Amino acid sequence: MVAQPPVSTDSFWMPFTANRQYKAEPRMLVAAEGMWYQRHDGTRILDGTAGLWCTNAGHGRAAITRAVSEQIHTMDYAPPFQMGHPPAFELAQRLVGHTPEGLNQVFFTNSGSESADTALKIALAYQRARGQHQRTRLIGRDKGYHGVGFGGISVGGMGNNRRAFPVQLPGVDHLPHTLLPEAAFSRGMPEQGAHLADALEDILALHGPENVAAVMVEPMAGSGGVIIPPRGYLQRLREITLKHDILLIFDEVITGFGRVGEAFAANRLGVTPDMITAAKGLTNGAIPMGAVFVSDTIHEAFMQGPEEAIELFHGYTYSGHPVAAAAGLASLDIYEQEDLFQRALELEAYWEDALHSLRDLPNVKDIRNMGLVGAVELEADDKPGARGYRVYRHCFWESNALVRCSVDTIALSPPLIISQDEIDQLVAALKKSILAAA
Ligand SMILES: Cc1ncc(COP(=O)(O)O)c(C=O)c1O
After folding, report:
1. Residue ranges covered by each domain of the chain
2. 27 close to 396: Cβ distance less than 8 angstroms
3. CA of 260 to the centre of ligand 1 (A)
4. pLDDT tens digits, one per residue of 62-108
5. How far apart are CA 155 and CA 279, in angstroms?
6. What CATH number labels 19-57+339-437?
7. The organism sits in which domain of life (predicted)?
8. Most CB contacts within 10 A, which of 51, 72, 198, 313?
9. 303 or 2, higher pLDDT
């Protein structure tokens, strides 16, 4: 018997949710502290997903609460167009201390979707600004997720995200995804699959490389099923894009801020793109905020132009919002003081062993991991996604753990403060639920 939630579930149309199914069995979270959520019936739930890849420093961080509260008190809002305030400039300056070399400019947004669309717009505007007006084509990747704006769904490669929206950006092609059956149960980055980057040359040959503005990929695809980049694959993409003078954009909305053991996957993998998109961990999930990190070369092309402001006529009412910026600064303080990105790297081996201990459970088809990201892919039932949902549901109600399911892949991305003991608890909870769902 499911305890009744403390509020009516009538009017909130929940995003990405089977609303009718949810209302029949509302899963309500009412409080959070450290590694733990609390259910509305008081049960503690181990957070195996950092909310939604957001709370890398864990929940309820007092320093963030304080910074947000002080900033609202000092100045709650200021217009971001033709008017500045210190927190946004300070945050931008602090952030570029963590980006790969040469990415020293920050355009603030409010979400990952806005970051993706902003990066695509900067790419198109940059090509114009440097006189390459014909470079209008964009290239994404199958199973890629770049949020829900029209740019993001067009360049992204998720069928369900597009099906109901027939109007999309023209001139977009997709690389093949890199999830190969022969790489199943790879520990960390798979050895197989770097050759798939060469498909970019085929697409370029088809349309003429001189017509392509940018390639956008997640270094590690999250929503498409946690797809770890094959060793050498991103290096190859970088080589080809450089050869043809095409921009490379990494969507690091989930890999940013320590998730894979460095500030960004780009740093960890030693591949420097021309732009990086971010959100989520930027404020530890406490206040909505996104960002695009842009290379000096791109930025300079705009600054040289005669009418710099209208060459990228773009922005949001809440770009660099002072309260979000305060949350971002306080989050960075925690990440730096507690060395959390390094902590993720140091826990990687323990995490990997713990996850791969599930290999012989029934219906386990693949296990993937990198940094503090993990995925257990299950064999589909008759109906794709049904087994994944059963495990997800069982985890929440019976094993007291929050995991995420993308069809039949259970994804894990705990806060980077997780202890070895909590890793064991999380994996034991998942084991119990996989067995129950078998
Ligand atoms: C890689 C990636 N890009 C973009 C987004 C969209 O972010 P938002 O939901 O904040 O718009 C997400 C969300 O999960 C994501 O994983």
Report:
1. 19-57+339-437, 65-337
2. yes
3. 16
4. 999 999 999 999 999 999 999 999 999 999 999 999 999 999 999 99
5. 18
6. 3.90.1150.10
7. Bacteria
8. 51
9. 303
Half-sphere exposure of 247 (CA within 13 A, CB side): 31
Q: CA-to-CA distance for 158 and 165, rounded, in angstroms?
A: 12
Q: How far is the CA of 33 from the centre of ligand 1 (A)?
A: 24
How do residues 189-208 score in pLDDT, each as one tens digit? 999 999 999 999 999 999 99
Structure tokens at 417: 């403060």
Q: How many CB atoms lie within 10 A of CB 105?
A: 20
CA pair distance 413, 58, nearest whole angstrom: 12
Distance of CA 353 to the CA centre of its chain: 24
CB burial class (10 A; 0-12, 13-18, 19+) of residue 389?
middle
User: By percentage, how much of the chain surpasses pLDDT 90?
Assistant: 96
Does the structural domain 65-337 have CATH classification 3.40.309.10?
no
Q: Report the nearest atom of ligand 1 relative to the CA of 112.
A: 7
Residue minimizing CA distance to atom 3 of ligand 1:
146
Query: For strand 105-109 and strand 44-47, is the pairing parallel, antiparallel, or unpaired?
Result: unpaired
Q: How much distance in Å is there from the Cα of 146 to the middle of ligand 1?
A: 6
Return the number of other C-beta atoms located less than 10 Å from residue 184's C-beta: 16
pLDDT for the residue 1 = 44
Contacts with 237 (C-beta within 8 Å, 6 or more apart), sequence order? 197, 200, 215, 217, 248, 271
CA 273, CA 295: separation in Å to the nearest integer?
A: 8
- Beta strands of 285-391 (E only): which ranges? 290-294, 364-370, 373-378
Q: Is the dihedral of CA 413, 419, 420, 421 positive or negative?
A: negative
Nearest protein CA to atom 7 of ligand 1, as residue: 112
CA 78 to chain centre: 28
Residues 113/253/373/273 CA torsion (nearest 10 deg): 130
Q: Is 294 helix (H, G, I), strand (E, B) or coil?
A: strand
Residue 374 DSSP SS3: strand
CATH topology match: 19-57+339-437 vs 65-337: no
Pocket lining for ligand 1, CB < 6 angstroms: 111-113, 116, 145-147, 218, 222-223, 251, 253-254, 279
